[in-house]
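Input for the complex:
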Amino acid sequence: GAGVSQSPSNKVTEKGKDVELRCDPISGHTALYWYRQSLGQGLEFLIYFQGNSAPDKSGLPSDRFSAERTGGSVSTLTIQRTQQEDSAVYLCASSLVPGFNEQYFGPGTRLTVT
Amino acid sequence: GEDVEQSLFLSVREGDSSVINCTYTDSSSTYLYWYKQEPGAGLQLLTYIFSNMDMKQDQRLTVLLNKKDKHLSLRIADTQTGDSAIYFCAERRGGGSQGNLIFGKGTKLSVKP
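Predicted:
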């Protein structure tokens, strides 16, 4: 595809369940970023991948959050034992190389924890 | 402070100029960005400015950077109803090459016909 895609676009889950959010970056982009957009909180950096490795996990809010990237392409963000405060839009972005000027954002996954 | 700050709302009339202001935090930030988010859509990069520049113009958009005050502004000339969106200021902080961005909370621009 031409852009970054994310799935699902919407996810409603019960508190305590695990969820997986998927990101397909633009083909050939080596850097991949996850951000979270909460109501009234702006965008918050979560984690960054260079290839398949994550040099910076400092933004992950708790150990319930993890992410992986395989084949230098698809990334999955997993939230275990979801809490209501996890409700947000999770955005993925990719760039050609780390630090490249333009990060291309996907449309996001809206997660609602009931 | 540690946050990128911008006012939350701006309302203008169609045809007027809009000015969205932002203060950032790290004087060593190398690039500063403006992103646009329309309802239900992802973030779209509008423009960016390198920290050694004072001004950048791109069609109806003018970015002004005051490094001394760590102040960034985005001016939209001849604002149209299609410009209604949330505008995010972001900085790429110095040190390291990973390039993650620090965003403000966004300014919601409403354009009245």
